[in-house]
């Protein structure tokens, strides 16, 4: 480290953006090779390099923040802006799928029977497992808030328990949704209903898995005493992401499961 | 939002030339402060040139601070280097412990909820702050090197393989 007359973080040169970019090339090309030539090699290499990049990049951020103290308040402010902008981009990502759903369902074409759900489609009962899923995610929103308050008050045991409960609820949601996917009488190739249903709920499920993974990393860091009562941005970022996932589900439930049935 | 701020002085560990970093503790002359200020840091500037080295002997101290809201550089007395603006001074070592664990739990026996994890953050902070001119991603020498080399080999090798495969796939077929 050399002269620094400011509170910003001048990061050491890192190879991970490069390996991340190349892993994206391998992932996309790997998908092409899988779809067209039934070959998995490049895809596997891409997945592996992607996982390795993510692990090492985020490990380095933990080193820089928790061990080297680079995350000053102004640096943290930048990290907050970054996370907020990322979540906004994800909101726009889902907006596309909701647009597609409403475009097709508000004015159903005559080849669907002029109705929504289309003729021949038996939608899932919104008052059964989907309602349970809703309560599971809402409860997880409560438990993560409990975890945050426990952390801020220095109550270690409460924090550990609440975060663990949140993760368990996230896993429970994923398990329930998987079983629902196996239960549906329609598939992704069953017209526009199947496409919009599985694209929207499928990407949401992926985000639940991502959010659960993020929370799990937070739990491991919490076990290792990384978080203090005043400085725990990693956990706050995970909590924001988790609330975002919860809100998307609420929109999905109301639009696709309830109104759309 | 707040962090514990700690000014550093020259030590046998070879502290960085310019210490601005707030961090939980240094193994060096720890002062236990809990900050409620977002705005102010105190800078300890050593005389001399930085060059590219990571360990520098110091001669003469100049103290600066960032003024309140505007963050402009302003002169500061040495006493201010150890008394940050807007901060509450907490001198007991127990205060630091509170940040990591609830005090009542420290003296109790390990419970089922403890999971037998030990707080190694202080040691790790000393380890990762060694001014040995090694980048963060390689600081742990052998494990980091192995992981880095594996990742880079797979990435470069995979990319070459991918480009060859794409080249072959782009050749016209004989149909």
From TrEMBL, chain A:
Keyword Transmembrane: yes
Job of this protein: Component of the cytochrome c oxidase, the last enzyme in the mitochondrial electron transport chain which drives oxidative phosphorylation. The respiratory chain contains 3 multisubunit complexes succinate dehydrogenase (complex II, CII), ubiquinol-cytochrome c oxidoreductase (cytochrome b-c1 complex, complex III, CIII) and cytochrome c oxidase (complex IV, CIV), that cooperate to transfer electrons derived from NADH and succinate to molecular oxygen, creating an electrochemical gradient over the inner membrane that drives transmembrane transport and the ATP synthase.
Record's protein name: Cytochrome c oxidase subunit 3
InterPro entries registered for this protein in UniProt: Cyt_c/ubiquinol_Oxase_su3 (IPR024791), Cyt_c_oxase_su3_dom (IPR033945), Cyt_c_oxidase-like_su3 (IPR000298), Cyt_c_oxidase_su3-like_sf (IPR035973), Cyt_c_oxidase_su3_a-hlx (IPR013833)
Boundaries of every Heme-copper oxidase subunit III family profile domain copy: 4-261
TM ranges: 16-35, 41-58, 79-102, 129-147, 159-177, 197-220, 240-260
Cellular localisation: Mitochondrion inner membrane
Membrane topology listed for this record: Multi-pass membrane protein
Family: Belongs to the cytochrome c oxidase subunit 3 family.
A cellular component term, taken from the record's GO annotations: mitochondrial inner membrane
From TrEMBL, chain B:
Domain of life: Eukaryota
Locations listed in the record: Mitochondrion inner membrane
GO cellular component: mitochondrial inner membrane; respiratory chain complex IV
Broad class of where this protein is predominantly found: mitochondrion
InterPro entries tied to this protein: COX7a, Cyt_c_oxidase_su7a_sf, Cytc_oxidase_su7a_met
Annotated transmembrane regions: 146-169
Protein keywords: Membrane, Mitochondrion, Mitochondrion inner membrane, Transit peptide, Transmembrane, Transmembrane helix
Topology in the lipid bilayer: Single-pass membrane protein
SUPFAM superfamilies in UniProt: Mitochondrial cytochrome c oxidase subunit VIIa
Pfam families given in the database record: COX7a
Gene Ontology biological process terms, A to Z: mitochondrial electron transport, cytochrome c to oxygen; mitochondrial respirasome assembly; regulation of oxidative phosphorylation
CDD domains: Cyt_c_Oxidase_VIIa (cd00928)
Family: Belongs to the cytochrome c oxidase VIIa family.
Protein name, as recorded: Cytochrome c oxidase subunit 7A-related protein, mitochondrial-like
The encoding gene: LOC100763871
């Amino acid at each position: 480290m050399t002269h620094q007359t400011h509170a910003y973080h001048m990061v050491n040169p890192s190879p991970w953006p490069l390996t991340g970019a190349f892993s994206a090339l391998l992932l996309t090309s790997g998908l092409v090779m899988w779809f067209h030539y039934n070959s998995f090699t490049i895809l596997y290499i891409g997945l592996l390099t992607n996982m390795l990049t993510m692990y090492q990049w985020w490990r380095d951020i933990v080193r820089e923040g928790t061990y080297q103290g680079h995350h000053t308040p102004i640096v943290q402010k930048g990290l907050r802006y970054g996370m907020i902008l990322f979540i906004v981009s994800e909101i726009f990502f889902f907006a596309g799928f909701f647009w597609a759903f409403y475009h097709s369902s508000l004015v159903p074409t005559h080849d669907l029977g002029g109705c929504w759900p289309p003729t021949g489609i038996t939608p899932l009962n919104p008052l059964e497992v989907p309602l349970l899923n809703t309560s599971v995610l809402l409860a997880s929103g409560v438990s993560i808030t409990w975890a945050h308050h426990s952390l801020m008050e220095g109550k270690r045991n409460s924090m550990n328990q609440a975060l663990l409960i949140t993760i368990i609820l996230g896993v429970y949601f994923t398990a329930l949704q998987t079983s629902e996917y196996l239960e549906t009488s329609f598939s992704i190739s069953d017209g526009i209903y199947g496409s919009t249903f599985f694209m929207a709920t499928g990407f949401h499920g992926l985000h639940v898995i991502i959010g659960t993974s993020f929370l799990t990393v937070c739990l491991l860091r919490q076990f290792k005493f990384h978080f203090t009562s005043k400085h725990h941005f990693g956990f706050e970022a995970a909590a924001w992401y988790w609330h975002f996932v919860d809100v998307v589900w609420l929109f999905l439930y109301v639009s696709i499961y309830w109104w759309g049935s | 939002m707040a962090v514990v701020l700690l000014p550093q002085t020259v030590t046998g560990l070879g502290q960085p030339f310019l210490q601005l970093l707030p961090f939980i503790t240094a193994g060096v002359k720890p002062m236990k402060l809990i900050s409620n200020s977002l705005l102010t840091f105190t800078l300890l500037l050593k005389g001399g040139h930085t060059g590219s080295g990571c360990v520098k002997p110091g001669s003469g101290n100049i103290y600066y601070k960032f003024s309140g809201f505007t963050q402009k550089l302003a002169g500061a007395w040495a006493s201010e280097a150890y008394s940050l603006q807007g901060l509450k001074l907490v001198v007991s070592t127990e205060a630091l412990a509170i940040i990591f664990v609830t005090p009542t739990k420290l003296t109790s026996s390990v419970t089922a909820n403890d999971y037998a994890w030990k707080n190694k953050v202080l040691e790790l902070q000393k380890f990762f702050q060694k001014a040995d001119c090694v980048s963060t991603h390689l600081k742990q020498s052998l494990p980091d090197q192995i992981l880095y080399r594996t990742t880079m080999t797979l990435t470069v090798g995979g990319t070459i393989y991918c480009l060859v495969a794409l080249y072959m796939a782009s050749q016209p077929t004989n149909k």
